[in-house]
């Protein structure tokens, strides 16, 4: 009996819609379980379960609603579940959802109870990023939104990391709030 390795693509679902950071959530008419916030290049910035949105959230933009939970894990759809759950990005984030990508396109989302159960039953084997022999697996990334604020302005910068850097890089500062280190 052969045992094939289960990969992210086996679990990822498509019960999400995408929204731009500036999209007002009130204008998102959908019954999808998840909202994936993407930038103008369609790169994922984060995911939030629709059920968690407060009544207030409908007056917010997608980025404002995402901000309190500013980290999401993005991983290649072909990554084995064990490698994903053992990855540094996953362990330091403990995300509600993992966004599955193929090349640079979002192709699915794995979250909710199915992910939570897998995490509960997962036994970490090595506790570090690993690459199965002979397979090209991209190391999962943490995508974070900068937490820097200046007055009542909040930074909308985002960066991807494999792990938490010892020294924070400079924020891309798309809102021109002034030079600052990335707010983890
Ligand atoms: Zn920033």
Question: Care to describe what's here?
Answer:
The chain is an alpha+beta fold and 184 residues long. The chain has helices at residues 8-11, 62-66, 81-86, 88-93, 112-121; strands at 16-19, 34-38, 44-49, 71-76, 97-102, 105-111, 141-145, 149-150, 153-154, 158-161. The chain has one domain: CBS-domain (Roll), CATH 3.10.580.10. It is 17% helix and 26% strand. The protein has a 5-stranded mixed beta sheet. It is globular.
- How far is it from the N-terminal to the C-terminal residue, by CA? 46 Å
| Main pleated-sheet profile | 5 strands, mixed
Bound molecules: zinc ion
Helix content: 10-25%
Radius of gyration over C-alpha positions, nearest whole angstrom: 17 Å
- Quickly give the CATH architecture: Roll
- Helix/strand/pairing class, anyone? alpha+beta
Oligomeric category: single chain
Assigned CATH superfamily: CBS-domain
Low-confidence stretches: none
The CATH class: Alpha Beta
Jot down its keywords.
five-stranded mixed β-sheet, alpha+beta, 10 strands, three-stranded mixed β-sheet, single chain
Give the SSE map.
Elements: H1 8-11, E1 16-19, E2 34-38, E3 44-49, H2 62-66, E4 71-76, H3 81-86, H4 88-93, E5 97-102, E6 105-111, H5 112-121, E7 141-145, E8 149-150, E9 153-154, E10 158-161
Parallel strand pairs: 1-2, 4-5
Antiparallel strand pairs: 2-3, 4-7, 5-6, 7-10, 8-9
The chain binds zinc ion.
Zinc ion (ZN) is lined by residues 146, 148, 155, 157, 171, 173, 180, 182-183.
């Amino acid at each position: 009996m052969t045992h094939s390795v289960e990969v992210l693509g086996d679990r990822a679902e498509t019960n999400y819609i995408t929204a731009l950071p500036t999209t007002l959530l009130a204008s998102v008419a959908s019954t999808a379980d998840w909202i994936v916030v993407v930038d103008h290049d369609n790169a994922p910035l984060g995911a939030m379960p629709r059920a968690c949105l407060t009544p207030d959230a409908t007056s917010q933009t997608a980025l404002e609603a995402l901000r309190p939970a500013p980290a999401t894990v993005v991983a290649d759809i072909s990554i084995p579940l064990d490698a994903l759950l053992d990855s540094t990005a996953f362990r330091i984030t403990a995300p509600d959802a993992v966004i599955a990508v193929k090349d640079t396109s979002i192709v699915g989302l794995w979250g909710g109870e199915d992910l939570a159960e897998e995490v509960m039953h997962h036994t970490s084997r090595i506790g570090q990023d690993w690459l199965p022999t002979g397979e090209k697996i991209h190391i999962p990334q943490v995508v974070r939104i900068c937490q820097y604020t200046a007055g009542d302005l909040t930074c909308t910068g985002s960066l991807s990391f494999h792990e938490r850097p010892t020294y924070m890089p400079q924020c891309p500062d798309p809102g021109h709030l002034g030079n600052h280190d990335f707010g983890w």
